[in-house]
Design goal:
single chain, 151 residues, alpha+beta, 2 helices
Length: 151
């Protein structure tokens, strides 16, 4: 291989590796909202989670409302609009020891319902629940957070 071709090949390989490294540094966020009720059917994709959800919130019926997924760069806040006028703001800060360090804010208008830092195992899941009023017919809105980076 001649010197110019070798230089082009090395530069091309370097660019490919840099692009792959940039992709690996991104984090994938998923926010799934689920309506939980005392009675009714559950969506097929949520049936495997029913025992865990029942232990967490006590309802028997789970219907997916929305599934939002997006990749983003570290240190860039992401807003997710949720039912009921809520806004979930996630700020993935860094990856440390296979855990994603992330700020979580749940807003309703100007009010902060949740404002905390979490450590979520890579590809791990966390649930938040809203709206259990004591009247079983009202149900609750569940928010499932998932974050991960390629391994």
């Amino acid at each position: 291989m001649s010197t110019p071709r070798l230089v082009v090949a090395v530069v091309a390989l370097g660019c490919a590796l840099a692009a792959e490294a940039a992709i690996a540094e991104d984090v994938m966020l998923q926010v799934v909202t689920v309506k939980a009720r005392e009675r009714g059917e559950s969506d097929p994709e949520l049936r495997p989670l029913r025992p865990r959800l029942r232990r967490l919130v006590g309802f028997r019926s789970y219907r997916m409302v929305e599934d939002q997924q997006r990749g983003c760069a570290w240190q860039v806040p992401q807003q997710f609009r949720l039912p009921g006028g809520h806004v979930l703001v996630l700020l993935p800060e860094r990856l440390a020891d296979h855990r994603i360090i992330m700020r979580v804010r749940l807003l309703q208008g100007d009010e902060r319902l949740v404002d905390t830092d979490i450590q979520l195992r890579n590809q791990g899941v966390m649930f938040l629940a809203l709206g259990r009023t004591g009247r079983p017919s009202d149900g609750a809105l569940l928010i499932m957070l998932k974050a991960g980076v390629p391994q």
